[in-house]
Amino acid sequence: MIKHLSEMKTFKQLAVLIVLFTGHSAMAQCEDGWCWGSDPDKAKANNALYTDALKADNYAEAATHLEWLLVNTPNLNKSIYINGAKIYENLWNVETDPVKKKALGEKTLEMFDLRIKYFNDEPDVINRKALVAYKILKDDKTRIQELLNLFDRTYELNKNAMFDGNLVAYMDVLRRYKAFGNPLTDAAVLDKYFIISDMIDYKEANGAKVHPSVRDNVEKLLLAIVPVIDCQIIISDFGPKFETNPELDLAKKIFKMMLTGKCIDDPLALKAAKVVDASEPSYGIKIFIGGQAALADDKETAIKYFEQALTLTDENVKKGDLYLKIARIKATQGLKSSSRDYAYKALDVDPSLSDAYKLIGDLYMNSFDDCAGKQDMVKDRAVFIAAYNMYQKAGDGSAMAKAKAQFPSSEELFNGNYSEGEQMKVNCWINTTVTLDRRPAN
């Protein structure tokens, strides 16, 4: 009969042949993505019973009906493995008997393997399996190598699509692997750290909202595995390679290592940061380079990088901090009007920045010699009233007291024919109006 298969002209003829060999029709087993097997009625009944039990959070009963489906209709629908993982994980959560708990853990992980076997999509499923496997296997010293292999495979298949939760777990698996007595060199740990850190960078650069705790926890785990990152080793091992070939990937690794190891004062960190900035500019890199320039008293370079950083963030708090940084540099340059402008820009985006008011107050306070006409002491001392007003907005009582001590005296007001409460224009660069007041009597 088999030799005549090529002579059959229709699919219906082939179906008849299947019935003769198997005793049932394969065509009748699957409908709309559901393959009900040789006993569709019983399969549908068990499917309804287990899903009803699942909805009621009755996981034990759900498992009983699901088990029949797993044995008799393993290719029913991928939902039996999605729900199966949930059912067995919940049973695992509450089980106290060690033997039973281990079996339930195995059953939970098996759901992911069977889903891959019957429905493919290994990258997505293994990504999900890693999340659950970490929870189930992380404390098992005999399975830690298997768990690490699973995370390696998850990265291999998913790269930057690896779930955020798996990034921290991946790093913690490395920590546990070493803590359980397995050999793991610092270099190997750093290699994995760079892989994980690069994934976080990629996600953030492409608009993903990665919670700050993810990066923080990854870095804390790195230091838990490698408590001391020797700055001199980084400088001596990586410095010559970088000088010979200052390529981007090496620059990124050096910068991250030096940042984590708190080696940023060494010139190598700045050199690496500038290479990274040239190809992949970011808010953080700009802030670092600008900050290093400010420490070196290279004011113009610092301002340039801070201005560039402003274009790389939409967060008002960050913008406010940058404007204030620039305002402070302008103040050290003696550019008081420009400094005040930037301080007000800081307040425009972040009204809570009381330090900006304090800075403006300092600018006014230090302008007496610049603005004093030395003919009318009341007019000259009005700058201190302007300073007081800014300190008041900053909530700085100590600075307010110092400014008020420089207000015009009662005698100066009387001799100048002025009255308390009178409005006065403060000219010079300050160009504001104040209400006259007197300093406290001695």
Structural class: mainly alpha
| Helix segment tally | 22
Poorly predicted residue ranges:
1-28
Percent helix: 55-70%
Give the helices and strands as they follow along the chain.
HEEHHHHHHHHHHHHHHHHHHHHHEE
| Sheet with most strands | 2 strands, antiparallel
Radius of gyration: 35 Å
| Fold-level CATH name of the domain at 301-435 | Serine Threonine Protein Phosphatase 5, Tetratricopeptide repeat
Shape: elongated
| End-to-end CA span | 122 Å
Model description:
With 442 residues, the protein is mostly helical. Among the domains are: 1-29, no CATH class; 301-435, Alpha Horseshoe (Serine Threonine Protein Phosphatase 5, Tetratricopeptide repeat). Helices cover 69% and strands 3% of the residues. The chain has 22 helices and four strands. It has helices at residues 11-22, 40-55, 59-72, 79-94, 98-119, 122-137, 144-158, 164-179, 186-205, 212-225, 231-244, 248-260, 267-279, 283-295, 299-310, 316-332, 336-349, 354-365, 368-371, 377-394, 397-404, 410-415; strands at residues 30-31, 34-35, 423-426, 432-435. The strands form two sheets. A two-stranded antiparallel sheet has the order 1-2. A two-stranded antiparallel sheet has the order 3-4. β1 and β2 form a beta hairpin. The longest helix has 22 residues, at 98-119. It is elongated, with a radius of gyration of 35 Å. 32% of the residues are buried.
Question: What distinguishing features does this structure have?
Answer:
442 residues; mainly alpha; two-stranded antiparallel sheet; 22 helices; 69% helix; elongated
